[in-house]
Design brief:
342 residues; 10-stranded mixed β-sheet; alpha/beta; globular; Spore Coat Polysaccharide Biosynthesis Protein SpsA, Chain A; 13 helices; 2 domains
């Protein structure tokens, strides 16, 4: 008999964390699940640790593949899954014993098609809670739910939600292997096009390990990949706009789209990967064309420092080159200047 839940965990080079992750899943109050561990060609001892757990618990299934990235690993897990519902967990994260039960209690009372939980950000020296407002949303209210999670910048991220596997398979939804950033948000948006109910829970029982994470400002995503993500993301948002008309949500979408466009433009000015002026000019034109005719609530357009907003509005190619040069070679001066402009 098929389990209620399929838990998919892509594994790569997490030998220091994978036992904690698996133990937290084994210790769940709700026990009717299969655990699919997809070892994505880890050169460390992660795969052997997974194999050892599979020998001890018949619910655990381990699959080994050559290194192809997290999207391919998750897709492989989806191909192998047999549960009614699907949950993704990252191999360096962990969950509290009631994490699965929270979902099942809600599903028993109200058969919603997508459920979000809050999460706990685990930094080296502190914890921060990302808590969602507890509420159920149906039909045209769905954009209100998406507005709430986008406002908190957690619409994407595969790991704090539960999906209906029938919907995933019926519409052929999979993670995009060509994306190195934002692939989980694209997956979620594709899924949201095909549902009519969302529930937000205010529980925070997922521990998101951010101790090794580079921030968005420090991690360089190639501009070509960012632009690919931008176009995919915005096309999906437009489809959702057409299905559910909600002014607040549309403004949030436009603000986020503008923000990531600006970040893509900024990435072109990094001294080590400086793009040709014609490429930078084309991206300027795209941003300015999009801005024209719209007014934005700045709380949706907050990922890029305000000095960058100002220079983009002034169409100042030379100043942006100087700013990024300063960011790389005189970082203390850059941060002093950035922090003066509020």
């Amino acid at each position: 008999m098929a389990p209620v839940l399929s838990i998919i965990v892509p594994v790569y080079n997490t030998e220091l964390y994978i036992s904690r992750c698996i133990e937290s899943i084994i210790d769940q109050v709700f026990t009717d699940f299969e655990l699919l561990l997809i070892n994505d060609g880890s050169p460390d001892n992660s795969g052997a640790i997974c194999d050892d757990y599979a020998l001890r618990d018949k619910r655990i299934h381990v699959y080994h593949q050559k290194n192809q990235g997290v999207s391919v690993a998750r897709n492989y897990g989806l191909d192998k899954a047999t549960g009614e519902f699907v949950i993704f967990i990252d191999s360096d994260d962990w969950i509290d014993p009631v994490f699965l039960e929270n979902y099942l209690i809600e599903l028993k009372e109200y058969p919603t098609q997508l459920i979000y939980q809050g999460l706990i950000n685990e930094f080296k020296d502190e914890q921060t809670y990302l808590r969602l407002p507890a509420r159920r949303y149906n039909n045209n209210e769905i954009t209100m739910a998406l507005f709430e999670v986008e406002l908190r910048q957690c619409l994407g991220g595969a790991c704090n939600k539960i999906f209906n596997r029938t919907i995933i398979e019926e519409y052929g939804i999979r993670f995009e292997p060509s994306l190195s950033y934002g692939e989980d948000k694209i997956f979620t948006l594709q899924y949201c096009q095909n549902i009519n109910s969302i529930t937000l829970l205010d529980n925070c029982n997922y521990h998101y390990n951010r101790t090794m994470e580079n921030s968005l400002s420090n991690l360089h995503h190639p501009s070509e990949k960012l632009i690919q993500l931008i176009e995919l993301e915005y096309d999906l948002f437009k489809c959702i706009e057409q299905k559910f008309n909600n002014t607040q949500f549309i403004e949030a979408v436009r603000g986020r789209y503008l923000s990531i466009n600006k970040y893509a433009l900024l990435s072109m000015y990094r001294p080590n990967v400086l793009k040709a002026k014609s490429v930078r000019t084309a991206q300027f034109e795209k941003i300015n064309h999009f801005i024209k005719g719209y007014s934005f609530d700045k709380k949706f357009d907050r990922d890029v420092p305000k000095i960058v907003h100002y220079l983009i509005e002034k169409n100042s190619d030379f100043s942006l080159r100087g700013l990024m040069w300063m960011r790389f070679y005189f970082s203390s001066l850059y941060y002093m200047l950035r922090n003066k402009i509020k």
